[in-house]
Amino acid sequence: MALSLFEELLLIAIDDDKGTVASSVSGHLPYGLAGALLAELALQEKIYIDKGRLVLADTSQSGNDIEAEALQIIAASKKPRKVQHWINSLGSTKYARRVAERLAEKGLVTIEERRILWIIPYDAYPQQDASAKYWVKQRLRSVALGGVAPSARDVTLLSLVKSCDMLGLVFTRDERKTARKEIDELVKREPFGDALRTTLEEIDSAAAAVIVAASISYS
Questions:
Q1: Is the overall model pTM greater than 0.85, yes or no?
Q2: Is the confidence at residue 216, as pLDDT, over 70?
Q3: What's the chain look like in SS3?
Q4: Is pLDDT at 187 greater than 90 in this prediction?
Q5: Beta bridge mates, 48
Q6: CB of 184 closer than 8 Å to CB of 61
């Protein structure tokens, strides 16, 4: 079953026991999902970076409503804007619920509305099919730790996991230093092509900056 980058990122973020987004990433996950959405569009060659600004290359719709909406929002801008602007803008949209709905349609999670003290509502996404998340994590671990040849999509997701401070959700404490170093090396050496590499690096850098700022304000 093919999953988008933002679907895989949300799966990784869900706490296995509680069914909620892990508390360590809940504050900045919306911006991580926005970065993953832009990275997905870049891999599909629908956007690229020109002089530090995000530019549309292909406005044709993909059939994915979240991707289609993002393309429409970008196209409606009066001028090309920096990636950080779009991560901030798209990150303010409640993508987690919408991405969870897509995962629910695929039978991977269920969506529950729970309440804190029986008053304050919040969403939970218990896994219906835990094997999907297991294989996503195993794929990333085999690339970062096992020397398995990666795809551009694998390297992009690993880089996003690192930028979103989610390495602890994929790797053990003892593995994280090695994984972090290998991810940096993979980004440098994998043959993406210069245009795609520049775009993905810009998205990764912008996502990391926005997430750091969000983490400071959230704390």
A1: yes
A2: no
A3: CCCCHHHHHHHHHECCCCCCECCCCCCCHHHHHHHHHHHHHHHCCCEEEECCEEEECCCCCCCCHHHHHHHHHHHCCCCCEEHHHHHHHHHCCCHHHHHHHHHHHCCCECCEEEEECCCEEEEECCECCHHHHHHHHHHHHHHHCCCCCCCHHHHHHHHHHHHCCCHHHCCCCCCHHHHHHHHHHHHHHCCCCHHHHHHHHHHHHHHHHHHHHHHHHHC
A4: no
A5: 55
A6: no
Which residue type is seen at 208?
A
**Is residue 167 within 8 Å of residue 140, measured between CB atoms?**
no
Buried b (16+ CB within 10 A) or exposed e, 91-128: bebebbeebbebbeeeebbeeeeeeeeeeeeeebbbbe
The maximal CA–CA distance of the chain, rounded, in angstroms, is 53
In the chain, domain spans: 5-129+192-213
Instruction: Fill in the amino acid letter for 67.
Output: E
CATH of domain 5-129+192-213: 1.10.3630.10
Give me the phi and psi of 116, to 5 degrees please: -90, 125
What is the structure's pLDDT at 215? Answer: 66
Average pLDDT over residues 149-167: 92
> Are 202 and 38 in contact, with CB atoms under 8 Å apart?
no
